[in-house]
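Dear Dr. L.,

I hope this message finds you well. Following up on our conversation about the binding site, I have prepared a predicted three-dimensional model of the protein together with S-adenosyl-L-homocysteine. For your records, I am including the exact sequence and ligand specification that went into the calculation, followed by the structure tokens. Please feel free to forward this to your student if that is useful.
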Amino acid sequence: MTALELLVDLHKSQERQGPGSKKDTIKALSFTNLSGKSGKAIADIGCGTGGQTLTLARHLEGHITAVDLFPQFLHPLQKQAKNLSLQNQITCLEASMDALPFEKEQFDLIWSEGAIYNVGFEYGIRTWKEFLKPGGYLAVSEITWISQNRPKAILDFWKQAYPEITTASNNIAKLENHGYTLAGYFYLQPDSWLKNYYEPLEASFESFLERHGHAALAVKVVNEHREEIELYKTYRDYYSYGFYVVRKEG
Ligand code: SAH
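The resulting structure of the complex is given below.
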């Protein structure tokens, strides 16, 4: 298996593939005026195994197109949706977020948790905008500096891992420059990282390593995750996922 295949294999049995929680999803949704309204069209981009997709399906009356690059993530979502009798509300679509087969002004809401970084925040907010109806909402979480002062070690790490990382005010300015109005902003608290994402992932490391016979590449994948978790625990006062909810100007 390649490193990418191993990465997908490590994450595919998890409820989430990034930090977040049901509470965060519901809070972000509360900044839109869509709750309780019927017939809405929603896209969930980079849905993974669909933790947030299922929450959205329960709280919105509409149809969700759940998009991910990897069928290994979409299959468990499809199965879960069926088990929960939500299959009529959710359509899984294997596609890349930089080549989406959508129509202009198709959606009332575009959702994306912990995924836009794959194409870059500014690229994502710019190119996805055409798929939103005027007055439609974009709700997106993005890694964000939450303090003005940063220790060099964490600055160096993020400069290398994701140079587009910036503060909430800079991201909000980007959104405004691209024709969106801010509806709400908050950032994820430690439980959304640790309890909901890192701890279940850590609990799966041993079985993952056994499944792959402790192959060097599998060990490397686990070690990289362990380092990422340590980094978060040490520097969690300096960065988090910011959740940006904005409205496309009509
Ligand atoms: N929204 C989920 C998953 C976040 S992890 C959650 O919060 O739990 C990021 C997701 O983006 C992964 O599921 C990954 O497969 C997906 N992804 C990565 N590159 C992609 C691309 N080019 N197009 C679509 N999805 C992509």
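In brief: The pocket of S-adenosyl-L-homocysteine is lined by residues 16-18, 20, 46-48, 51-52, 67-70, 73, 96-98, 113-115, 118 (CB under 6 Å).

With kind regards,
A. P.
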